[in-house]
Amino acid sequence: MAWEWGEEEEDNKIVCIIFNPGKHLMKIAITGGKGGTGKSTISTALAMELSHEHKVLLIDADVECPDDHIILPTTREKVKNVHAMLPSFNPENCSKCGSCSEVCRENAVVFIKDKYPFIISRQCNGCGACLLACPSSALKEGQQVIGTIYQGQHQQPPGRNSNNLLLVWSEMDVGCESTSLVVNATREYAASMVSEYDHVLIDTAAGTHCNVISAMMGVDLALAVTEPTPLGKHDLKLILQLLKIMKIPTQIIVNKSTIGDSNLIEEVSRDNSVPLIQEIPYEREILKKHSRGQLVIHKTIEELANTITVKFLGGTHK
User: Fold this and answer.
1) Whether 5 contacts 317, CB under 8 Å
2) How confident is the prediction along the chain (318 residues), in pLDDT tens digits per residue?
3) Which domains does the chain have, with CATH numbers?
4) CB under 8 Å to 183, separation ≥6 — which residues?
5) How do strand 199-203 and strand 56-60 relate by DSSP bridges?
6) DSSP state letters, 126-165
7) Model pTM?
8) Can you tell me the distance from the alpha carbon of 91 to that of 318, in angstroms, rounded to the nearest whole number?
């Protein structure tokens, strides 16, 4: 399995970097349409299990509500702020024509007739359309902080190598709308160290919106986490449709598999020709650990790690 370097571009920005040649590194997205299905629980548990024998980079791409750092005992190191372009006005040049407001699709530029426009900074996504539309050069580029990137080394028990698992995550500033920009910046930072690791796991937000798409760009495999409920079935269909459009190979994980109706998910699996790779039961011990913010250790996670290692990497996992 030989990987090539490559890039995906969006708005002239690199949003992902593929793998270095000659290394059996794999990028795996843990995703799912429905919130609360257990994506973060599975992401952290799988990362921990794989880190017993491999170096793992875990990226929490749910920038609006990151929680992997709560489940995993890690250090917390601020890496840098994430900035976005924010236009500023020069009233001396402004003709009060309103062109800037007309082209703003985010409704971040407010214009009232015969008044100077003003910007709602948290609505602005930094696209720059207003600068291009202004006929009197009354706008210039500024910037605002929209989020912060952090990283933390997993604190392993004594006797184990704590350098095998690194968590990278970001937190959006309150009120900001440009989640994809923060996801892209987080992945770009993580890409600078990807050659040091054997596996990269990306824990996405719930849903099928822009920041989920940004998180999954360029991955080799998606694990779609769901639950055997009608809503789980509905949202699984949505995420599978997205993954099909993105041409990402996908496997299904059923969490809380011993409640609800497993036939719901099996039907979706058959109809979409997407294999069901693992079932994780609804057990009291798992529930206790999750409610305490503790890492879940379970035989089904060991099975999942072994399946991924054997099936997709041609190796073995003990």
Assistant:
1) no
2) 333 333 444 443 333 333 333 455 789 999 998 888 999 999 999 999 999 888 999 999 999 999 999 988 889 999 999 999 999 999 999 999 999 999 999 999 999 999 999 999 999 999 999 999 999 999 999 999 999 999 999 876 665 556 789 999 999 999 888 899 999 999 999 999 988 999 999 999 999 999 999 999 999 999 999 999 999 999 999 999 999 999 999 999 999 999 999 999 999 999 999 999 999 999 888 888 877 777 888 899 999 999 988 887 665 555
3) 7-72+154-313 (3.40.50.300), 83-144 (3.30.70.20)
4) 61, 63, 170, 211, 214, 215
5) parallel
6) ---HHHHH-TT--EEEEEEEEEEEEEEEB-PPTTS-GGGE
7) 0.86
8) 67
SS3 state at 217: coil
Burial (CB count within 10 angstroms: exposed 0-12, middle 13-18, buried 19+), residue 181:
buried
- Rounded to the nearest 10 degrees, the angle between the axes of helix 299-313 and helix 39-50 is 70
